[in-house]
Amino acid sequence: MKTQAAASIFFLATSLPTALGWGTLGHQTVAYIATNFGCATKTKFQGILGDTSTNYLASVATWADTYRYSDEGTWTAGFHFIDANDNPPSSCGVDYSRDCGDAGCVVSAIKNYTSRVQSTSLSDADVTTAAKFIIHFIGDIHQPLHDEGLDLGGNTIDVTFDGESTNLHHIQWDTNMPEKYVGGYALSDAKTFAATLTTKIKTGSYKSEKASWLDGIDLSDPVTSATSWANDSNAYVCSTVMPDGISAVEKTDLSGAYYTKAIPVVELQIAKAGYRLAAWLDLIATGETGL
Ligand SMILES: *[C@@H]1O[C@H](CO)[C@@H](O)[C@H](O)[C@H]1NC(C)=O
Ligand SMILES: *[C@@H]1O[C@H](CO)[C@@H](O)[C@H](O)[C@H]1NC(C)=O
Ligand SMILES: [Zn+2]
């Protein structure tokens, strides 16, 4: 216990300022949405993850970020994003062969761990790890700045939010905006936010578009499937993240009009990520999406 507490204090002290992907709230919300939709997923992934509680996806949703910032996991850092070499705001787009790179990216990682989670020859521990990576990476790929190379995905663009100094990428898009909107970042906040978004998908404003979110989804072609999610997400870099270029956001407080315009995209991308995660896990479990 002592060692664990010391390790987590060390982690908080050294990593929090720039570390967290969608942030805890975003990743856990994505996981709960997938839990709400995935029927076939439940038995299969509760088994793989060794957790029969209703938090079976949410409780492992940020493991990949913790691992990435540990000494043994540094090598996986590049799996959390794809650096599109596009030219926002005038032109956006992800091109897998141009942008993924030899060391891998979030698209190749989704491919690799989708193959590994279905393996019958790997150890149970390796299959469990593969599941945890997929649950996290399908969240990451839906954050527009995880699909952008410019200024390290916005990490070097200094902004403020409610007066607090931060940067455009992690804190602003991943964390500050969803947390301001939801009003907290506890597991219970994620569950409530997921319930709201689940209702929007089932019967609300996303009902008519949700089928299109699964266009082209193909478990046998993870690169094409995941590249289309990345490309879809990256388009918001041009339309919403920096529609007037870097100079319009740099050193600016983004908690007002910018936030108001951005928050529907944050919600939409979290909803899509959860729905697509449910579909992907269902495909792994049964070969069909069940949605
Ligand atoms: C696939 O995952 C395994 C286990 O994490 C890793 O050792 C390997 O390098 C990965 N391969 C690719 C191409 O990413
Ligand atoms: C990416 O999206 C653009 C439109 O925004 C489209 O023209 C292009 O074909 C898409 N590319 C991929 C790989 O999906
Ligand atoms: Zn991540």
Automatic annotation (TrEMBL):
<feature type="signal peptide">
    <location>
        <begin position="1"/>
        <end position="21"/>
    </location>
</feature>
<dbReference type="GO" id="GO:0016788">
    <property type="term" value="F:hydrolase activity, acting on ester bonds"/>
</dbReference>
<keyword id="KW-0325">Glycoprotein</keyword>
<keyword id="KW-0378">Hydrolase</keyword>
<dbReference type="GO" id="GO:0003676">
    <property type="term" value="F:nucleic acid binding"/>
</dbReference>
<protein>
    <submittedName>
        <fullName>Nuclease S1</fullName>
    </submittedName>
</protein>
<comment type="similarity">
    <text>Belongs to the nuclease type I family.</text>
</comment>
<dbReference type="GO" id="GO:0004519">
    <property type="term" value="F:endonuclease activity"/>
</dbReference>
<dbReference type="Pfam" id="PF02265">
    <property type="entry name" value="S1-P1_nuclease"/>
</dbReference>
<dbReference type="InterPro" id="IPR003154">
    <property type="entry name" value="S1/P1nuclease"/>
</dbReference>
<dbReference type="InterPro" id="IPR008947">
    <property type="entry name" value="PLipase_C/P1_nuclease_dom_sf"/>
</dbReference>
<keyword id="KW-1015">Disulfide bond</keyword>
<keyword id="KW-0255">Endonuclease</keyword>
<keyword id="KW-0479">Metal-binding</keyword>
<dbReference type="GO" id="GO:0046872">
    <property type="term" value="F:metal ion binding"/>
</dbReference>
<dbReference type="GO" id="GO:0006308">
    <property type="term" value="P:DNA catabolic process"/>
</dbReference>
<keyword id="KW-0540">Nuclease</keyword>
<keyword id="KW-0732">Signal</keyword>
